Amino acid sequence: IREWLSGLGSVTVQAATFDTKISRPRLPGSAARGAARALRRAGCRLVARPETFYVEAKAGPLLDGEIDRAKEWGNRLASVVAGRTPGR
Predict the structure, then answer these.
(1) What residue ranges in the chain does DSSP mark as E strands?
(2) What residue ranges do the domains of the chain occupy?
(3) b/e per residue, 56-78, with b = 16+ CB within 10 A?
(4) Cα 78 to Cα 71: distance, rounded to the nearest angstrom
(5) 69 with 53: CB under 8 angstroms?
(6) Average pLDDT, the chain
(7) Would strands 14-15 and 18-22 be described as parallel, antiparallel, or unpaired?
(8) pLDDT tens digits, residue range 34-72?
(9) Which residues pair with 73 in a beta bridge?
(10) Dist CA 34 CA 75 (whole Å)
């Protein structure tokens, strides 16, 4: 992703970022925040704060409740991009 972001150039699109993390141990940092910074520098308008979804292990699966949380996040993004207030 870093290589793709560094070669992105200047763009004017809407964007959102997410990452996954192992639930334990809680490690600092966020790939989603780093990607969001790179997208902003490239000219993207971020439509949401970077989001993290938690997994049990490096290969997954998502923790209980994370799929529903991801679906809700996706629905909110779709509403924002479509110009609607989420929940309407």
Answers:
(1) 14-15, 18-22, 45-46, 51-55
(2) 2-82
(3) eeeeeebeeebeeeeeeeeebbe
(4) 10
(5) yes
(6) 89
(7) unpaired
(8) 999 999 998 999 999 999 999 999 898 999 999 999 999
(9) none
(10) 23
> Which CA distances in Å does 17 have to 25, 30, 49, 88?
22, 10, 8, 24
Strand-pairing partners, residue 45, are 14
Q: What's the chain's length in residues?
A: 88
Give the pairing of strands 14-15 and 45-46.
Answer: parallel
Structure tokens at 39: 């997208």
Whole-angstrom distance, CA of residue 63 vs CA of residue 45: 30
Identity of the amino acid at 25 = P
The one-letter amino acid at 12: T
